[in-house]
Specification:
This protein is of the alpha/beta class and 367 residues long. 43% of the residues lie in helices and 16% in strands. It contains 15 helices and 13 strands. A seven-stranded parallel β-sheet has the order 3-2-1-4-5-6-7, with helices on both faces. Strand 4, helix 4 and strand 5 form a beta-alpha-beta unit. The model has no long low-confidence stretch (mean pLDDT 90).
Length: 367
């Protein structure tokens, strides 16, 4: 069985990490990653020993690569083409009929929100993405909620497999005190880490408004990630006069170290699948505050693991931060992190993800 994974290549968030960690677990001769542009994703894949092929486009509208891609798939005799994201899905729709492979896609986000605030162009891209779904042979949904979303737009349930993200759990890294000092943070600071692409759907404004309303200078916020909304978020920080409390760190590879100095991890998305960032927080025994999106309730199963609040509920999010801060002052917050780690390690390992993915591939080829 030979599998080709196809993704745009410009991703910097959870889908990037999902693809690289998943492919690294497969036999090298069985797997290849194809991208339309080079970047952090392709470099990390190469560093992990994954074969990477680049089908470079002159622009995202350049369709000349489709012939090259189809020829490559047929020459290499790939059995399965596994796509990730709207760009890969749309281009595959125009090319899949020229190949003999089966087409699988992973749904990492709610397709109705992928081009949120994109205007007329966003509405067009959303329609094209949903149109491509009608051609796909099988779907992986990264939460049960996303499976339901797919069924609501007409995808039959027997064509969808819920398959949760997973990571390799390791011993938590020791607290990186030099990093804390480098960032200008003290032991008296309550540190919240928010790892997310800077995109409207990720809910940065909700967190910034909550931080402003709390009016507690001891609470510090690490914003980790990059994306199209960076300028707007920077302006929002200035507008709310939060420069002394918010550190915009951009894309970082030292996530474990950043979590090691953090007291709580945040997620504020309006839509999400099953966030790897929260699993990485669990690995470091850091409890979480998250909106009720995707499969987070399967991760934050009990109140002693963190807080799950309704999407967009400003007051509830502020209350959760206050509760976390009070637990931290009483020295009780770390126990929540230990409970979260125990549950996550037992249920959301990378080995489980690889096993279910392989079984689904085999089942699909027998159909």
């Amino acid at each position: 069985m030979k599998i080709l994974h196809l993704i745009s290549g410009g991703e910097t968030g959870g889908s990037r990490k999902h693809v690289v960690t998943l492919l690294a677990k497969f036999p090298k001769e069985q797997i290849c990653l194809a991208v339309f542009q080079e970047g952090a994703l392709s470099q990390e894949a190469k560093d992990a020993g994954i074969r990477v092929e680049v089908f470079r486009q002159k622009s995202r509208y350049d369709l000349s690569v489709l012939h090259q891609l189809a020829s490559f798939i047929n020459k290499e005799a790939f059995d399965i083409l596994h796509t990730h994201g709207p760009r890969a899905n749309f281009l595959t729709t125009l090319m899949i009929g020229k190949t003999n492979c089966r087409w699988v896609t992973t749904i990492h986000s709610d397709p109705k929100l992928d081009f949120m605030k994109g205007g007329l162009k966003g509405k067009l891209f959303t329609k094209l993405n949903l149109w491509s779904y009608q051609k796909i042979h099988y779907f992986f949904a990264v939460s049960e909620r996303f499976k339901q979303n797919l069924m609501e737009i007409g995808i039959r349930g027997e064509k969808i497999q819920t398959i949760y993200n997973g990571i390799d759990f390791t011993s938590p890294v020791p607290q990186a005190d030099p990093l804390r000092e480098d960032l200008g943070l003290s032991q008296e600071d309550f540190i919240m880490a928010f790892i997310a692409r800077l995109h409207p759907v990720k809910g940065h404004n909700l967190v910034l408004n909550a931080l402003h309303n709390l009016n507690n200078p001891r609470v510090k916020l690490l914003l980790i990630g990059d994306g199209p909304n960076r300028q707007e978020i920077d302006e929002k920080i200035k507008q709310l006069n939060l420069q002394s409390q918010v550190l915009m760190l951009g894309f970082r590879k030292d996530v474990a170290d950043l979590y090691s100095i953090s007291d709580v991890a945040l997620l504020a998305s309006e839509s999400e699948s099953f966030p790897l960032s929260l699993l990485e927080a669990a690995n470091q025994e850091v409890p979480v505050i998250t909106t009720d999106v995707g499969g987070v309730k399967e991760l934050v199963l009990e109140p002693d693991m963190g807080w799950v609040v309704p999407v967009g509920d400003q007051a509830a999010y502020e209350r959760a931060i206050n509760f976390a801060y009070e637990s931290w002052e009483k020295g009780m917050l770390q126990e929540k992190g230990k409970s979260l780690r125990k549950h996550a390690e037992e249920n959301f390992s990378l080995d489980n993800l690889v096993k279910l993915t392989t079984e689904t591939y085999s089942k699909l080829l027998k159909q």
